[in-house]
Specification:
Elements lengths: L8 H15 L3 H11 L2 E7 L1 E2 L15 E3 L1 H14 L1 E2 L2 H8 L9 E6 L4 H14 L4 E4 L1 H6 L4 H11 L4 E4 L4 E4 L4 H15 L4 H15 L14 H9 L3 E4 L12 H18 L6 E3 L10 H9 L4 E7 L2 E2 L8 E5 L6 H9 L1 H4 L9
Parallel strand pairs: 1-5, 1-13, 2-3, 4-5, 5-6, 6-9, 10-11, 11-13
Antiparallel strand pairs: 1-12, 7-8
Helix pairs in contact: 1-13, 3-5, 3-13, 7-8, 7-9, 11-12
């Protein structure tokens, strides 16, 4: 779930203010002052790190591209220089009475497990000595196919069809000719689809695949990481976590199906990786994607920590360990904005967006 959608001029105001603070050299001082007033855990949330020389030709979700490789390198250099990067397992250990967390702790996380995490982000993290946590959906590692949400965006962006009809959403309209307009339509429909239950979501996307003759298949622009890649990353200090089996909104599943989704993803990860997995992020991750029953299933399956996609930081020493908030990083963030966002998230971070319906 990407946090950007229409930030309107609020995003522009934050960016302009961030540039002013950055140019004045006041951000490190603000960080120290804020640290005296409150102690909390920052968790950065990324999806993809990609260099797109021709973004207008990219037929998948641009909102999931969190940064270019150059942006990401600058961001991680700042995290290493001004903060204390830790893993979620370090957070869990501290909460369980182990070594306390260092000053200004930051966790770097990635949702979904795209292969650019391995190809682009991982070498930068390894070079800079910054650990990160990668949440992966195990069913897609096995079959190599994009997530259903990714494929929906791809179909809308690439189909030669002239119309789109989605009776479940009351949609029957002409598809716009240009890719930017199709992206806007795809973003709107994707948000609306997530208000449906899981069966209805799956049926709607499958119906479009059949109608447009675009069955979901592996695609070079939207591939999951492999087990071998995950094993290498784990061996070199990265943390691997669960993102379910099939990237489904857990709170919208029948109870028994949800419990299997949570348990079976951990079983697959523990079977395939040398080190056991004890962290999870809720797919999509907004308030409608997890609830008390989901949290209970996550605890029962042995996850010590779980992350939402609700924007914010987490108070120490007692954060909500199975509903941790995160700070989304989006490609519109230049270096001053990122620096200001990590320094003072309440002012410069993205707000959470809530779906209606």
């Amino acid at each position: 779930m990407a946090a950007t959608a229409a930030l309107g001029d609020g995003g522009g105001k934050r960016q302009r203010l961030a540039r002013w603070f950055h140019a004045g050299g006041v951000l490190p001082g603000l960080q120290r002052v804020r640290g005296l007033l409150r102690r909390d855990l920052r968790i950065l949330a990324y999806h993809r790190v990609l260099d797109l020389p021709e973004p207008e030709r990219f037929s998948f979700d641009l909102a999931l591209v969190s940064a270019s490789s150059a942006q990401f390198r600058r961001q991680m250099e700042l995290v290493r220089r001004r903060f204390s990067p830790v893993r979620l397992e370090d957070v869990a250990a501290a909460l369980d009475g182990g070594p306390p967390l260092p000053r200004d702790p930051v966790v770097v996380t990635f949702d979904d497990g795209y292969d650019d995490n391995y190809r682009v982000a991982f070498p930068i993290l390894r070079e800079l000595g910054v650990p990160a946590t990668f949440f992966v959906s195990t069913g897609h590692i096995d079959d190599g196919r994009p997530y259903a949400y990714d494929w929906l965006v791809h179909m809308i962006c690439s189909t030669p069809a002239q119309r789109i009809a989605l009776p479940a959403l009351g949609v029957d309209r002409t598809l716009p000719p240009g890719l930017p307009q199709r992206r806007e339509l795809a973003a709107t429909l994707l948000d609306r689809i997530k208000t449906l239950d899981d069966d209805a979501q799956a049926a709607l996307i499958a119906a479009l695949e059949a109608e447009w003759d675009l069955p979901r298949r592996p695609h070079p622009d939207c591939r999951p990481m492999s087990w071998d890649q995950l094993r290498q990353m784990q061996a070199e200090g990265m943390e691997i976590g669960s993102h379910g089996v099939h990237h489904r909104m857990l709170a919208k599943l029948p109870r028994a199906v949800m419990e299997r989704e949570v348990a079976e993803s951990k079983q697959a990860l523990d079977r395939e990786l040398p080190l056991p997995v004890s962290v999870l992020s809720y797919p999509v991750g907004g308030p409608d994607a997890y609830d008390a029953a989901v949290i209970a299933a996550v605890r029962h399956s042995g996850y010590r920590i779980a992350c939402s996609y609700v924007a914010g930081t987490n108070p120490l020493p007692a954060p909500p360990r199975h509903a941790l908030r995160r700070l989304p990083v989006e490609r519109e963030m230049d270096a001053p904005w990122f620096s200001a966002m990590v320094t003072w998230p309440e002012v410069f971070g993205y707000p959470s967006r809530l779906r209606s319906g």
